[in-house]
Amino acid sequence: MNQVDLQRRSFLKASAGAAAIAIAPGMMLYQVANGQTAGASGKVRWGMLIDTTQCKTGCNDCVTACNRENGLSGKTGPTDSQWIRKIEIKDISSGRELSLPMMCQHCEHPPCVDVCPTNASFKRADGIVLVDKHRCIGCRYCMMACPYKARSFVHEPLHDQNPDVPRGKGTVESCTLCVHRIDAGGKPACAEACPNQAILFGDLNDPDSEIARKVRSVASVQVRADLQLNPGVRYQGM
Amino acid sequence: MRELREQSALLRTRGSLAGFLKALSVLIVAWFALSVFSPAQAAETAPRLDIGKGGECVKDPQWMRKNHMHLLKHQRDETLRKGIREESASLKNCIECHASTKDDSVIAREDSFCVGCHRYEAVKPDCFECHSGTRKSAWLRQRNGK
Amino acid sequence: MAMNSPFQLLRSHLYYGLLAGGGLLVLMALYSVHLMESQGHVITGMNNQIVWGLPHVFAIFLIITASGVLNVSSIGSVFNKPAYKARAPLAGLLSIAMLAGGLAVLMLDLGRPDRIIVAATNINPTSVFAWNVVLYSGMFAAVAVYLWTMMEKRMAPWSKPAGFMVFVWRFLLTTGTGVIFSFLVARQAYGTAILPPMFIVMSFAWGMAVFHVVQSSIYAWNNKSLDEYVQHRMKNLMGVFVMASLYFVAVYHLTNAYFARQFEFERFILLEGDPYAMLFWLGYIVLGNVLPLLLIFHPALGKSRCVLAASLLIVAGAFALLYVFIIGGQAFPLAIFPGYEVSSTFADGAVAQYQPSLPEMLLGIGGIGIAFIITAIGIRVLDFVPQEIQKSAAAE
């Protein structure tokens, strides 16, 4: 073999070596990452059905449970985060009064996801709308876009976060449908805490689930249904 | 005539500027060259690390030292955006073992697991703006005690 | 060149003094940002109900006016009016300067400004903010190219196509800014398609006003005078733009007031909202429209001091309108349950309170400081100041 061929040979060997080194970490990480655990599935759509006739004025158990579960302060000042709140509503024309909890409605077509510049606000395959705090730049555009005022901005440095619920200053947050509980097979803290079982949680796509059967049989509405966002949270008795 | 004087003044300025720059670059090179000759210093300030309960579940320490940041950055999207929650890839689980047995934290003290080396390398990890650095069992105890 | 004439020395002192002043404003803004970064937005007046506050008023003013100030160049390059053509480079510089100032304020107000790289690399194609990243940075490039074609002699044949590109680009940019609000379907103040054209026409008016203020200042500080005829033409055009933007604002409010479901909102903005109603009528309508139009068009007035006053009033009116639009629009309670009276711990059904804070004010003013410094240095270093072309009606 002549000199040029020997040089070419060693060049090719070096390139192959370099290429292998370059992709090796990715391949090893692929092994580590693609473990056995299955992720969120598009076959499922998590939702809630809230029976407002069972919801009592003055009862705040769902709010308290949410605050405790997610490490929120529970304070209600203008800069304090509220992932769920009780709203007292009164029909202006009929005078009928109601009480209901309002949280992120986990829309099928979330305006917050449309407007987020970095895709930090996203919808998981199983319908849960979340904020990816790794990407959130804190522009608050999603807060402007949300028809339900579901989102809060973290205005102060936080300490003592729940290890299951990362939250940080300068990012936007909202009800996660207790995704950390759901992924472990449980249900949201608010649904568990309601003394009247007014909040029913389940898989809307599973025709045999309790929530699907109930949604099929009792009258329920979506808040601001005119916007056609198809939220996953429905209200009964409105 | 005035123009010539002005021009030569400019050149003299240029000359001294060049001289200054040369001296500055020599100093900088010398600084870096001399820093090679301080291994003894380095050994003195090598990071002390409280590894908590210790143990290894992902990879060996040397691999982790070089790659944990890539692993975390890749894994966080898998967990958060796709919902793939593998135990060995969970930050909470890393903290479960590596938090100090004294104060249940990976960030509380200078020799804490996530502080010692980062401080030595002068790299500020962004993680704990949002993530808790406390072992979950300790956090639960603290919350339930309230 | 004589370096020691008293006039040159004074000019030098004035220049460095102005730079120092602008620099001080910018430093104060950066200090505010440092405070916001370390202590969080809790030190500002913004909260979970009013999420965009005073910094956004300043930023949107700067960005809209950055687009509008290029009108002067467009009239020169695209519509071929020589008096405007001479002013085109200054307009280009002003545009870049104000865009830089506005963007700086927006980016520094972010909850996580350290993640700008994330914003630039993760682009959501359905988000206007993401489009704006492209539009705004492209604007810098487009105007830079345009300036190059105007200021380098051999590129002169390209200045018309470059001018046209900038003309189109700034329409896209201002539309992109208006559409930020248009796309907010749920809010009664926004969610309407009239906003982009309204912003475009407002940009014309505000751009002319700011250009006039800057031009007058430069002339005053450099012992130049503005040709009477040019001033006359420019002030009349400014007046036309002011009337056009008033028209758009009127149509916006009239249409809103017509819809039963929007009536409460209009009542809030125009009658009851405190301080929004007063800011709208006194700040925008009277100070920002009626007085300037009087100063511009009244036969007894219309001299240079009147035109300068009119320009400053138009700018003041712009701030008043943006305050009412951005902050008033958020203060009015979001209608989650139309037809119901609501109350909660999260200000549902209640008018949101907002008190502008010092850090926000300093940040906003810092944006103006940035624009100021860029303009001042640009004028000093390159040939932006218009060479006066004495033009008569016949030659025009």
Task: Write a compact overview of the structure shown.
Chain A is 29% helix and 18% strand.
What descriptive keywords fit this protein?
heterotrimer; A: 238 residues; alpha+beta; Alpha-Beta Plaits; 2 domains; 4-stranded mixed β-sheet; two-stranded antiparallel sheet; 7 helices; 10 strands; elongated; B: 146 residues; mainly alpha
Q: What is the arithmetic mean of pLDDT of chain A?
A: 91
Order of helices and strands of chain A: HEHEEHEEHEEHHEHEE
Largest sheet of chain B: none
Q: CATH class of the largest domain in chain A, anyone?
A: Alpha Beta
Which residues of chain B sit in consecutive blocks of at least 5 with pLDDT less than 50?
none
Please describe what this structure looks like.
The complex is a heterotrimer of chains A (238), B (146) and C (396). With 238 residues, chain A is α+β, with helices and mostly antiparallel strands. Chain A has 2 domains: 1-36; 46-236, Alpha-Beta Plaits (2-Layer Sandwich), CATH 3.30.70. In chain A, 29% of the residues lie in helices and 18% in strands. Chain A is built from 7 helices and 10 strands. Chain A has helices spanning 3-33, 61-70, 111-115, 141-145, 179-182, 189-193, 210-217, and strands at 46-51, 84-91, 97-103, 121-123, 129-131, 152-153, 172-173, 199-203, 220-221, 233-236. Chain A has a 4-stranded mixed β-sheet with strand order 8-1-10-9. A two-stranded antiparallel sheet of chain A has the order 2-3. In chain A, a hairpin with a 5-residue loop joins strand 4 and strand 5 (129-131). Residues 28-36 of chain A have low confidence and may be disordered. Chain B is mostly helical and 146 residues long. Chain B has 2 domains: 2-43; 61-145, no CATH class. Chain B contains 6 helices and no strands. Chain C has one domain: Formate dehydrogenase/DMSO reductase domain (Formate dehydrogenase/DMSO reductase fold), CATH 1.20.1630.10. Chain C has helices spanning 6-39, 54-68, 71-77, 82-108, 116-121, 128-151, 159-182, 195-221, 228-258, 260-272, 276-297, 304-331, 358-381; one strand at residues 340-344. The longest helix of chain C has 34 residues, at 6-39. The chains are: A alpha+beta (238), B mainly alpha (146), C mainly alpha (396). The interface between A and B is medium-sized, with 34 and 31 residues.
